[in-house]
Structure formats: structure tokens, C-alpha cells
Amino acid sequence: MPYPLSEVQQEMQGVVRAFARNEVMPGAAERDRTGEFPADLVRRLGELDAMGICLPERFGGLGLDSQTQLLAIEQVAYADAALASIYTAHFLALEVILGYASEEQKERFLPAMADGTALGAFALTEPDSGSDIGGMATSARRHGEAWSLSGGKTFISNAADAGVIVVFAKTDPGAGFRGISAFVVDPQAEGISFSAPQDKCGIRSAATYSVFFDDLRLEDDRVIGDLGAGGKMALSALNGARIDIAAMANGIAMRALDLAEGFATSRVQFGSKIRDFQAIQLMLGEMDAEVEVARLTAWWAAAEKDAGRDLRRAGSIAKFVASENCFSVVDKAVQIHGGAGFMRESEIERLYRDARVLRIFEGTSQIQLMTIAGVLASTYDRLGALA
Ligand SMILES: Cc1cc2nc3c(=O)[nH]c(=O)nc-3n(C[C@H](O)[C@H](O)[C@H](O)COP(=O)(O)OP(=O)(O)OC[C@H]3O[C@@H](n4cnc5c(N)ncnc54)[C@H](O)[C@@H]3O)c2cc1C
Q1: Atom 40 of ligand 1, nearest CA residue
Q2: pTM of the full predicted structure?
Q3: What pLDDT does residue 3 have?
Q4: Which residue among 131, 194, 201, 213 has the greatest number of ligand 1 atoms within 8 angstroms of its CB, and so is best to mutate?
Q5: Given this model, what pLDDT does residue 379 score?
Q6: Would the pLDDT of 387 be above 80?
Q7: Cβ–Cβ < 8 Å for 252, 78
Q8: Residue-averaged pLDDT of the chain
Q9: Nearest of 247, 244, 335, 257 to residue 290 by alpha carbon
Q10: Interval 122-170: pLDDT, tens
């Protein structure tokens, strides 16, 4: 377990922490109110070399380990969960291109993604195909020398603000999950359009869109990996990126714990700080344990990722534990704030709305548990793994 942190990890954590506290946190409440997409903050993440932390240096990245990326995400999420959602959606798109694109495609797309000039988006979900990705209807049909993409996606983070969109579509509509292929799409291309940003309960400045494809022409150099392998790529990229969502959850949970601790030490009832009441201490103690367990679980999964191990189980455990623990921590933090925690003017009220999505996107908690159970039933040897 790489704990305590290396010098390089601490340095990256410090750079992102300073940015998050000084530049991100001050405007987070206002962006939540307006829903305005923080394009300037995304650009700043690029300037800080924080958009390609794990990318090899030859593609413009820093070539660092996965835990360092988690540390950066935690800091961003601590300041603004919405910016962390934009950031993690970018990493999800990167995961597909880095994992499966040709060398030529990597050279073409990754440097701009690493320097923040091309934000990534990942377009899988459709109105009638969420957890069941094999049911997607968007199709890419062969027309002469090129592909024609038609259909629509929904809830796509970053889509209209992106420089690169990874789109999944059926190239063999009769083949279900095995008929899905992946494409790199230019958001400015003719034949693609976007809805207005969708109005959401939380992470409100992390815009999501419906995306429409109407006979969008794609050359063969836009196909990622093998035809028909897109379903596997999507799931594998999600396994790898779920640890980023865990880090986002952990950053939000740490902020909630700090807010609760601060409130409990200043709020006086019955002549005492409420921090002195055992009922409050029990909540704070449980919150701290929930945060620590979730961080260690995410870092374990990051080490598994860097060791090249199968991430289905570790990625799902990390995402499940961190998102469920985060929601529990934020809920207790609201409880400690009493009525003040229910008011729009309090930061914890925003965190309560922001945290809810963690148990839904990049695979719901139910899907994580089913994935874990599936691995348990097939290949996992618990005693062997512990030996
Ligand atoms: C803010 C936000 C941002 C998003 N960003 C993106 C993005 O960038 N790209 C993208 O592609 N998608 C994105 N999504 C979509 C997200 O990944 C899906 O919402 C999620 O995967 C769940 O799919 P669904 O909403 O269709 O729910 P459904 O799949 O319809 O699920 C509904 C309920 O049924 C349960 N369920 C479904 N199947 C089973 C089963 N077999 N067994 C037990 N329970 C089951 C689910 O757990 C859930 O409780 C985003 C969503 C949100 C809210």
C-alpha cells in the first residue's frame, strides 16, 4: 500500500490543493446557482498539467501513477463536486483512447486532452439503454468508404463543451453487446447536435446533454480498436475509471466531515458546544471511519490498476464503498447542522445534492454489487488472494 505518500504525490496534491482552495472553492456556490460551465477552471487544470496525470509523457502527460490522479480528484471534489465530475468524465474518455486506440490515434488526440484544450466526453447511455448497454439503438452503418452514425445519447457529461467525444454505437445491430463499436467523434462535426444543458438536482455546473447524431459521417480512422469490441471496451474503461468516482466521493466526504466538525465546535445548545455531546461524537467518529475506509479502498484499487490486474472487482468495490460512505457521511453532516443544514445558503445542503449522483452514474450501486458478485462466483479465490 503506497501510504504515506511519495514526494511526487505530495507535490501534485499540493499544486491541485492550492488551485482548488484559491480558485475553485470561492465560486462553487455561485456556479451551483447559475449552472454555468466553468470553462476557465478546466483550462487552468490543463495549465497545471493535471488533465493527463497518468498519461505517458510521450503523449503530453505526466506519466504518474493512478493514486496521484486520485489525490488530485479528491482535492478538486473537496472544493467543488461539479468540477470533479467534469474532470472524472474527461478521464473516462481518456481511459478508452489510451487503452484501445491505435498509436496514430493516440498521437492525434491525446496531447490536446492532456493539455486541457480538448476536454473528453464518453457517450454510452441512451434514453432506453442505461445499465443494459447491449440494448443501445444508436447505430453506425457502412456507407461506401465511411460510416454513417445515427441515433441519440443522453445524460452525457461535458458533451457540448468537449473537444473529443468517445461514442459507442451498434455496427452489427443483431449482435447485442457484441455488436457495439467505439468511435472518436469531433463535437464540431456536421451531423451532431446537442440539447441545452439538462437541469439537475446536484453537480449543477457539470453540464450533461442529450446528443443527437443524424447521418454523421465517420472515416475508418475514427474507429477505436476492433469492430464489435466496443461493449467490452466501455465496461473495461468504466472499471478503470470507477476509482476516479471513488476519489470524487472521498473528496466530497472529507469536505462534509470538516464542515460538520467546524459547525459542531461552534454551535452551542443547552449551554455546551454540541461537539461535547456523545450523540454528535458518535456521528463524527463514524464519519471519519467511513472516509478512511473509502480512501484506503480506492488506493488499493489504484494499486491493483497500476499492477495491471483485473479491475472488475476492485473497481466496483472502491466505487460502491466510497459512494455509499460519502452519502452516509454527508447525510450525517446535514444532521449535525440541524435546520441550518437544510438551508440553501449552507454549503452542506449543496454537498447533499451533489453526493446523490455518485450512487447512480458510472454504474449504479446495484450494478456494482452484481459485478462484484459475478466475479466472486466465477474466478475469485479469496484465500489465495490473501495468502
Ligand atoms: C449527472 C449524470 C451524469 C452522467 N454522465 C454520463 C456520461 O458522461 N456518459 C454516459 O454514457 N452516461 C452518463 N450518465 C448516465 C449514467 O451512467 C446512468 O444514469 C446509469 O448508468 C444508470 O442508467 P439509467 O439511468 O438508465 O438507469 P437504469 O439502468 O434504467 O436503472 C434504473 C434502476 O434499475 C436498477 N437496475 C437496472 N438493471 C438492474 C439489474 N439487472 N438488476 C438490479 N437492478 C437493476 C438500477 O440499479 C437503478 O436503480 C450520467 C448520469 C447522470 C445522472
Answers
A1: 367
A2: 0.97
A3: 72
A4: 131
A5: 66
A6: no
A7: yes
A8: 96
A9: 257
A10: 999 999 999 999 999 999 999 999 999 999 999 999 999 999 999 999 9
Q: What is the mean pLDDT of residues 101-120?
A: 98
* pLDDT tens profile 332-360: 999 999 999 999 999 999 999 999 999 99
278 is written with which cell numbers? 456523545
| Residue found by looking up cell 458546544 in the block | 273
Contact (CB, 8 A) for 119 and 94: no
Q: How many angstroms does the Cα of residue 84 sit away from the middle of ligand 1?
A: 19
Kindly state the average pLDDT of the residues 296-320.
97
Q: Which of 45, 3, 73 is nearest to 245 (CA)?
A: 73
Residues recognised as catalytic? 362
What residue owns the CA closest to ligand 1's atom 43?
366
CA 239 to chain CA centroid, nearest Å? 11
* Contact 155 CB / ligand 1 (< 6 Å): yes
- Three-class DSSP labels, 255-313: HHHHHHHHHHHHCEECCEEHHHCHHHHHHHHHHHHHHHHHHHHHHHHHHHHHCCCCCHH
CB atoms < 10 A from the CB of 229, how many?
A: 16
Phi and psi of 224, rounded to 5°? -100, 125
Residue nearest to atom 48 of ligand 1 (CA): 364
Separation between Cα atoms, residue 189 and residue 242, nearest integer Å:
30
pLDDT tens digits, residue range 187-240? 999 999 999 999 999 999 999 999 999 999 999 999 999 999 999 999 999 999
Could you check whether the bond before residue 4 is cis, i.e. omega within 30 degrees of 0?
A: yes
Q: How far apart are CA 94 and CA 66, in angstroms?
A: 13
- 8 Å CB contact between 193 and 214: yes
DSSP for 157-210, written as a single string: ETGGG-SEEEEEEESSGGGGGGGEEEEEE-TTSTTEEE-PPPP-SSSTTS-EEE
Q: List the grid coordinates of 286.
A: 463514524
What is the per-residue DSSP string for 113-135? Answer: HHTTSS-EEEE--BTTBSS-GGG
Instruction: Walk me through the domains of the chain, giving residue ranges and CATH numbers.
Output: 7-119 (1.10.540.10), 121-230 (2.40.110.10), 231-386 (1.20.140.10)
With a 6 Å cutoff on the Cβ, whether 168 touches ligand 1 is no
Q: How many CB atoms lie within 10 A of CB 10?
A: 14
